[in-house]
Task: structure prediction
Amino acid sequence: MKTATVFLIEFIVILPLVITFNCDRSSDHQNEMTFRVDKSLLAEKFVDRELGFEFIPPKDLLKVPADVLTDVRDQLPLTDFFQIIPRQVFLAEQSEFVCIISWLPELIYSDSSIISYQRAVKSQTSNGEIRQTSFLYNGFRIYQTLIISDDVVNFKLLIPQPDKKSFQIDYIIPKNIYIEKIEAIESSIGSIKRKK
Result:
């Protein structure tokens, strides 16, 4: 399981995210986005009451054991940008498809903080194509980054919130199975909701 830990650390630190799905939206990037949700492509619901949201990861992704999550947290290097604390990791070990929920306690809900975050993501990405956009969904303003490298596609969703409750969701998928899994990722993003 050590290799899974190393794999997760590499992707949490190095790769950021997110693309435009098969979804409806107007040309105004701040309008409400809609997603097609196919529940048959989803696993069990994950609820984070502290951060105030719930979502459902793609099917076949399993929660990593608590000791692996602790290992990942302990081995993350400090960055000059924002502290990123993994709260849950879901992994399909055979395919190396990963979904990571992280807390960003230092990220405040302001334009300057978001711009700094986006610059940090770009500066940490040495190769690959990067696309960034933002949209509204289920009461959240979501900043999406898509990173496409030679081997991996990373969808990074930043959800800034007040009161030190900002979080991000990363979907990290080998490029060779990306097309096969895109509907599951879209369905998972479509499952994000506020939780009181």
Notes: The domain at 2-194 is CATH 3.40.1000.10 (Protein Transport Mog1p; Chain A). The mean pLDDT is 82. The two ends are 35 Å apart (CA to CA).
